[in-house]
Amino acid sequence: MHPNDRRYSKEHEWVMLEPDGRALVGITHYAQDHLGDVVYLDLPSPGAKLAQFQKLGEVESVKAVSDLFSPIAGLVTEVNQVLVNRPELVNQDPYGQGWMVRLASVNRDDLRHLMTAPQYEEYLSKLE
Fold this sequence. Notes:
Number of strands: 9
Largest sheet: 6 strands, antiparallel
Number of domains: 1
Order of helices and strands: EEEHEEEEEHHEH
Oligomer: single chain
């Protein structure tokens, strides 16, 4: 259910390392499902430096406004601009077109504080 090529946080964000050493960040299917329809995202500007688990923005849904946290430290190099006009992609494709930010200068040591897909699925089973 959750892609094996990512690591997951307890706050339901994911990170996927790219071959060039950068990383994509987004929220999990579980998070988008519990948020309901996403209507707006407030994301950082390129150039922002993020520490691991630092607030990176907010997601507004029909149910609530929730904080987003960076699962890994890095420098924001790109924000998914498609989400400005199509925030529903977070719901429709959270692991693909619904990615939120791309980070460079990532700290790979941060991955040890995150869960693999099987660990995340076990974590979710304890929440319900």
